[in-house]
Predict the structure.
Amino acid sequence: MIRFLEVVRRDLRLALRQGSDSLMVVTFFVLTVVLFPFGIGPEAGILERVAAGVLWVTALLASMLSLDRLFQTDYEDGSLELLVLTPTSLMVVVLAKVLAHWLTTGLPLLVAAPILAVLLHMNSDGFAVLMLTMLIGTPVLSLIGAIGAALVLGARRGGVLVSLLILPLYVPVLIFGVGAIDAAVQGLSAEPHLLILAAMLAACLPLAPWATSAALRQALE
Amino acid sequence: MNAPNDLPPFTGHGLGCIRGGRVVFAGLDFSVAAGEALVLLGPNGSGKSSLLRVMAGLLKPAAGKLAWGAVSTQAEPEIHAARTHYVGHHDAIKPVLSVAENLRFWARLHEPDAARASDAVDRSLSRFGLAHLRDIPGKMLSAGQKRRTNLARLLAAPSPLWLLDEPTTALDRHNIKVLEGVFADHRASGGMVVLSTHQDVDLPGARTVHLDDFGIETEEDPA
């Protein structure tokens, strides 16, 4: 547990000192969403219809942007070897790194999302559910993304490769995230969608660190 | 060496390693007991680094077994990791963290007690002549200072087995002397040192392993 917290603290400290990463993710998120009213016109009706989808697709892309930072620098400077040799399960280290990644990228997205929802004229009935889906969904994105980030270590053009690997796996999160918001906006219960999202999170919490650990060991062989 | 020999010997039997379809070494045996040192010798590409990575548990041996006493290291990788310090080619220094922060992080992963860890970090920094650099960020360090910061991990958290891949790279003569002193102290307290090197490192009574392309011979160094 102490080791878990140490790794989280170190990664947060690194992210804060380097600064630009989480800022870049949020800026990308905001800018891309702002492009949509320009692209499809400012009619409130159309924007309202696509708001949930736009927010979620953009959030997927934004959270993917920072994935290569998750293990790449540690891999290059030799820290990863030492982290693998930490006297604890590698899954603990992976989970700590994913948590730090989520705190520096997923959480800022969560904060920015309702502001952008206003911009897209989203029905205010959907706001609470939007936040909930983001809260449950973005950790899933970080967890699945970690598998991809670990798999492409040492590959050239890892950034492009990771999107090809990971985006298909993000589809279920997208479907149920948007489904929940649409249901809420139409006055239906969002609960089934949210429960399925939560089930995805529950499945990813043990499985993703396990797969990521295996991929990291493979990368260091 | 009149060391407290409470540790079982760290041994390898019939170790083989295949890298990129090529057999790097095969049928390699070694043994390190408490207080002993083992020097790996051989030309470039003869498998010194691979053997050290196998010993650390980063690489699975293609054949053979590693064991502490009678217990296989693969059966308990976490206990093996707790007993081991591995120093590789890379220095694992984060450019935006200070020397002390870098070191304290690695120390804390091995030593859960905060007060003891930070004591050990301070002692280790002064032993390696880094005390005046403790608040300098990693990116300002020279190659030799980075190497010393990495080596300071050895003392920042106690572990009996040290695996060092060319630890003298980028060190000046004075600091090689310091390192030799650290090795001597470690062995006197019952620790084990395994290192690969191309330079002369003074390790009294060290055994050597010559890694040639295929055949491997072990001999006692009469020092």
